[in-house]
Amino acid sequence: MFSIGKKILACALLLVLMALLPFTAVKCSTNGSKSENTLTSSTGTTKTNTKSSDDTNEILVGLTSALCNENFSSDAIKAIAILINTDYIINPEYFDLDDKTVYVSKDELDNSEKEYYLKVENIVKSIDKKTLTVKNKKVFIPYSQLSCGYTLDSGDCEYITSVASPWDCFSQSYNENTECVGVSINGINYLCQNGASAEQALKWYLPEFEIK
Fold it and tell me: What is the pTM (predicted TM-score) of this model?
């Protein structure tokens, strides 16, 4: 009963937030330049990469492809590519490129999967190396696939703000005990599928940040 009550409350909050989202998103404009979670991504591990710096664009496509899937909207993929580009610049060794759940290699895809990969590749090119900054500084931004209905503050990441993410409750993978610091990947996709741009979705989870 308690769990049902929490979901009802989350749904009620969702209705209020969706009513306010267009106004919030406009207010948070980027001025046209535009798991259980620790303070890092929920999927990576620190390991020395075997890729050279010349392959940065290909790496970004592979990392973004692994986090998204063919059901993600183009704006959601764009938002996640900007997020991952920022994190990779800050700490490239964090991402284990030998882990197939973290990095998708084009050479290992069959023909049916290459169409999705090509879509991601085109979107990555379109972001033109954009990154997220706070007070004109790039920082590593933690993320998880899902939250429990809201994201958390962190004493170690003072630039991360707790925000509501009630749409995560609609996921089949929803777990009320899941902790998410930073960005919900599922939440980004939900917002973009419901009319938010990539920039607006990122600003929802990262209101103190700018996209440059």
Answer: 0.78
100-155 per-position pLDDT tens digit: 999 999 999 988 899 999 999 999 999 999 999 999 999 999 999 999 999 999 88
Q: What is the token pair recorded at 74?
A: 């183009």
Strand-pair category, 183-184 with 143-144 = parallel
Backbone φ and ψ of 5, nearest 5°: -60, -40
Q: Which amino acid is at 104?
A: V
* ∠ CA 102-104-107, rounded to 5°: 150
Burial label for 189, CB within 10 Å (0-12, 13-18, 19+), is buried
For residue 126, which amino acid is it?
S
Burial 61-98 (b: 16+ CB within 10 A, else e): bbbbbbbbeeebbebbbbbbbbbbbbbbeeeeebbbbe
